[in-house]
Write a structure and sequence with these properties.
The protein is about 55% helix and about 20% strand. With about 200 residues, the chain is an alpha+beta fold. A hairpin with a 5-residue loop joins strand 2 and strand 3. The model has no long low-confidence stretch (mean pLDDT about 85). Keywords: Membrane, Transmembrane, Transmembrane helix.
């Protein structure tokens, strides 16, 4: 038996000319080969999707950096109804006044830390019209989104294909046990008759 890892891998994929390989072994080898090719294709596809997502993220960063403005808002009321944000930090809502980038006065409800009080100032992001807007997308968010897409596709494909290979192996082993048992029921009586 060869200790060459490439030869063992080729044999595992069924790429050798083993005359003792049964039909179920060949089916299992084909499924393994398809799984390996599928994972390679998923990695390439994931990298392409990750690069595409990164490019889209850079465009979003540039657009939002151009369209978003940071202004100073003055709280006109105390914080009401504190709650947990998606990130797990405590936030509350308070009435505030601020000026749009063109100098027009604006007012509304903004999210702030529950410890803030009326009269304090906070920095908020607005669009060109002065309406409250989310913080512009930063490079870290762009990279995380690209990495998530780029690695998520190959990992999901690898998990599904590993499940396919495992299921095929389990089915083949159960079938082989049934065949062996059926063949043993034929051989066992003859074996006992011959006194062995």
């Amino acid at each position: 038996m060869s200790q060459n890892p490439f030869a063992r891998f080729a044999r595992w994929l069924g790429l050798d000319r083993n005359p003792l390989r049964r039909r179920c072994d060949r089916v299992e080898a084909v499924v393994r080969l398809v799984a390996v090719l599928g994972v390679v294709a998923a990695v390439v596809f994931g990298v392409l999707l990750g690069v595409r997502e990164y490019g889209a993220g850079l465009k979003t960063e540039a657009r939002q950096a151009h369209d978003r403005y940071q202004v100073v808002a003055t709280l006109s009321g105390d914080v009401a109804t504190p709650r947990l944000s998606v990130a797990g930090a405590a936030v509350g809502h308070a009435q505030a006044v601020w000026r749009a980038p063109d100098g027009t006065p604006r007012s509304g409800v903004i999210e702030v830390s529950p410890s803030r009080r009326a009269g304090e100032t906070v920095r908020v992001w607005t669009d060109a019209n002065g309406a409250i807007a989310p913080r512009p997308q930063d490079r870290e968010t762009t990279v995380v989104a690209a990495m998530t897409v780029g690695t998520g596709v190959p990992l999901a494909a690898a998990a599904l294909l590993a499940l396919l290979v495992t299921c095929t192996r389990v089915v083949n082993q159960r079938r082989a046990r049934r065949v062996w048992e059926a063949q043993w029921t034929v051989v066992e009586p003859m074996w006992r008759i011959n006194g062995r």
